[in-house]
Amino acid sequence: MDVTVFEIVMVSLVGILMGAMGAIIGSTLLILVPLLSLLGLPIQTAIGTAKVSVISREIVPAVYFYGKKLVKPGIAIPFSITAIIASYAGSVVAVHLNAAILEKIVAVCMFLISAIMIINPQIGLHEKVIAAAPLHVLISLLLGVFVGFYTGVFGGGANVFIIFGFILIFGHTFLQATANSKLPNLIITAASIPMFVINGFVHWQIAVPLTLCTAIGAHFGAKLAFHKGNKFIRALFVGLVVVLALKYML
């Protein structure tokens, strides 16, 4: 499929915006995939092309946040390993599930998360110091199983569960949870891309400029998140959760 210069420029500009948003709260595929589909890309190609851009969306802020000493690989790496394994199991189960019912389950989860945020307005604003222990590695592994399985089955808004899980279980602030969500998202996405590439489901004429522009946006998004802090990230996070809840409920 050929695309015009105008379409490439439009997608690239959207990529800058998505990079900035994705560096903070992720979930850019929810916007990019429908946009690429509107341009005429088959749904598999739209997903594969959008996934390539996620690489820069996560690498750039991951490096930035690591430089700010916000990344804790001891949590992120065990989580990522089990997430990759569980995502395959989830993809196998997905073909047998009723998509409409699953969407309602996701909507309920999103409503519960938003309710918890409203009831406890201080959650994620201040770090809870929790001493490192083998139990936390185990919890990280189990959280990876849940998120990985969800990603394989459904995927939309998986970053919400990662950030919220890191806040609830490990006592992270929103900024810390966002920083530590980058490595798992990068590893999970990178593991899924080869299948799309092998099957020709990546439109490189769009993917390359989209990925480069996403990197630019992600750089500014990471800096914005760091300087604006937890209240800013929390506001965006709650907004995303509510939008996801309404999207899957209606």
Domain unit count? 1
How many helices? The count is 10
Which stretches are low in confidence, meaning pLDDT under 50 for 5 or more residues running?
none
Round the mean pLDDT to the nearest integer and report it. 86
Radius of gyration: 17 Å
Query: Main beta sheet: strand number and arrangement?
Result: none
Distance between the termini: 33 Å
Instruction: Determine the strand fraction and express it as a percent band.
Output: under 5%
Overall helicity: over 70%
Number of strands: 0
Class from secondary-structure proportions: mainly alpha
H-E string: HHHHHHHHHH
- Quick one: overall form? globular
Describe the structure.
The protein is mainly alpha-helical and 250 residues long. The chain is globular, with a radius of gyration of 17 Å. The protein has ten helices and no strands. It has one domain.
Write out key terms for the chains shown.
250 residues
Summarize this structure briefly.
By secondary structure, the chain is an all-alpha fold.
